[in-house]
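Workshop exercise sheet. Pairs work together: one partner reads the sequence aloud, the other fills in the structure field after running the prediction. Swap roles for the next sheet.
Pair: D.N. / O.F.
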Amino acid sequence: MNTLTPLKAPISVNFETTQVCNLRCSFCFSNSATHHHKNPPLERVKRIIDALAEAEVFEIRWFGGEFTSLRGWQEAVAYAFDKGFFMAFVSNGTLMTRESARFLSSCGVTGGAMSLHGPEKMHDQVVDVPGAFGKTIAGIRNCWEEDIGVTALFTPTQMNLHSLYDLARWLKENEVPITEIDIGRLCPSGEAVDGWDKRRLSLVDYRYLFQVMREVQRDFGLHAYMGDAFPLCALPYKDWGLVTGCWQGTGFGQISYTGELKSCSILGGSYGNILEIPLTEIWTERLKIMRSLDYLPRQCRLCPHFCGGGCSASRAGVTHYAPDEFIPKPEEESVLTLARRVPGLLNFYVRSTIDRWKTQRGNGQNAKPLPPLSAKPRLNCQFRIRQDLDGFIGFFKNRGILTFDETSARIFQLIDGRRSVEDIIVAIAGVEPSLDGLIRETVLTFLDSINRGEFLTFSD
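Structure field:
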């Protein structure tokens, strides 16, 4: 039976610092298009940052509304930077001046995402603000000039469904510095609730989008992918690699400008307020039912290639968690729903076996042996490590997440570019006498694994 590994706190959070926005997207889950929101007091924003730091959250992704609409947003970002957070952002880009981009870069921000919902005419129609497209493109270029990479965010609707390819072509022809396009799910939340039956996209619509994603990669060299969760059993195996999945309720959370903690940016249900209850208490205790997976059909809980059951926010009327709109609820399961999965699973077993064989051959050909014991290793990225409920977990900027034991955590702290491999072995021997004759093998095996993962550089 599939399970979700609990953590004491999210690894990364979207911090919805304000619901204020200067655009009027018809699908906005913050209702920013039709509601007149006010900015929260900056002191409350700082108190929320303090609560996130106390829980040892690694990353804040500035979110909205439009986070640059928050009065004093630079002060909030600087405050979080001083607390040691890694940071990124999600923005519409229209207010991203060169000075704003330079400030973000000075606070360690190296990446973010900006919304582009089609070429100029289509985009401006979707966001209902003439001239928005040009301002977003200028914002992307401003970020690029300050060494901040930007991912384009494309939310498909009935209006712009067939605009993805044209957008990619325009970006390529006009040399806009975008290297990837993240396609999201249109969900029945906020502005999109009204008339949802007419607004919603069908499975056929999404399969068409996956086809376009491959065409964008082929024709323009732009990586286009599904940035939200999607049930893999509803797709052919060739599309599985285009789905990034979702960490909701495990490694990812959403914090509102009032301090409410949600497992998903789009769903409205709160699990508690981190200004009133410690985040770690909420995260470990109040999400247990969600992590039990009892809300998913048994076929999902037993699936050998568990994808999380797709996107909870895609199903109408949900506040916290639910199966994706394209898979059955537990009470709807039948032999027929299982039969529909069989072709995809058989395809998965055959293709994944071939892929693993190719990968194993490639790993053997591209092995990276460790240099001599006198070499001095250094991690080639910024990182933070925390002790979690079971062992340790590390956030490695622009590289990913690793879990490891106490000995490995000590080794990480010793990799500083000054100590040689032999020095690290001696240091571990001094604090881990219980390992006895296994110390050298333990250290070398661990260093070899992260070296093959290209986390290390060496000097003489």
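Discussion prompt: The mean pLDDT is 91. What would you look at next?
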